[in-house]
Amino acid sequence: MTAVAERIFKDALDLLPVERAELIEKLFQSFDCAARNAVDAAWAEEVESRFEALDRGEIKASSAEDVFARINQR
Is the pTM higher than 0.70? Predict the structure, then answer.
């Protein structure tokens, strides 16, 4: 990793977890469209799978507020 990239990485570690996740998303979006389409398709499949598991009662949902509170506690 270059010195600039290392500095950016270290600075990013000072962000809240949610802010780091947003940064990761923006960086990921900067890659080419074909790669994004493959990831989007995989996420769509994962979301569908999770909805089906929720409908079957195999998993429980959490509110966004609870999820972000748990993330920010880390």
Answer: no
